[in-house]
Design brief:
It is a single chain. This protein is mostly helical. The chain is built from 6 helices and no strands. It has one domain. 76% of the residues lie in helices and 0% in strands. It is elongated.
Length: 193
């Protein structure tokens, strides 16, 4: 089961990474297009070659709706990275006090953290599902590209549901570890005593 969950988390992270890479490249292209458009609108370029500058100024520019795509894509990417972070204990941890605790206290602390994380991820997925239905029903579209806003919500919802499933799985593992006293998944965070 752990290999299945870890594989699912890795696949989601790869998909999120691909989406984020696309957004980075698109943003760079948009910035270069904006700069070139300004360059071809400059008086000195119009003085050197007016026809070429006018043609380039009308055909080169920022990517239309780039901020809408970034807004939708980054939310999807963030939710896509959460499952891998959850299953590998990749979240930030402050161990100033926890290092002095006993192994049992640390297991209970990890269990409580995983349970809270799982509950928050389920809450986020639930509310995102409600938001997706709401956006679908009211037919809201983005300002420039006019794509239905619910598409972005649905993509983020898919990632959020996977994150919630992985979160619930890790909470169940940590509950078992806290109750039984044995570590099922060693991820380098445990304190051995």
């Amino acid at each position: 089961m752990h290999n299945l969950m870890k594989g699912l988390a890795r696949i989601m992270a790869m998909i999120g990474g691909a989406a984020l890479s696309f957004l980075i490249l698109m943003t760079c292209a948009s910035i270069v297009g904006r700069l070139l458009n300004g360059l071809f609108h400059a008086e000195w370029t119009r003085a050197i070659s007016p026809d070429f500058a006018a043609w380039m100024a009308s055909h080169v520019g920022p990517v239309n709706g780039d901020f809408e795509l970034v807004e939708a894509g980054v939310a999807f990417a963030i939710f896509s990275f959460i499952p891998l972070c959850q299953i590998t204990a990749g979240h930030a941890a402050v161990d100033v006090f926890a290092n002095g605790f006993s192994a049992r206290a640390n297991r209970i602390l990890r269990m409580a953290t995983e349970v809270v994380f799982a509950l928050v991820l389920v809450l986020i997925a639930w509310r995102l599902a409600a938001g997706t239905v709401s956006k679908f029903e009211n037919g809201e579209t983005s300002f420039l590209l006019q794509f239905p806003v619910w598409w972005a919500y649905a993509a983020s919802l898919f990632s959020a549901v996977v994150a919630a499933i992985v979160g619930l799985y890790m909470a169940a593992i940590r509950i078992y570890e806290a109750v039984s006293g044995q570590i099922l998944i060693w991820d380098g965070v445990e304190v051995q005593q």
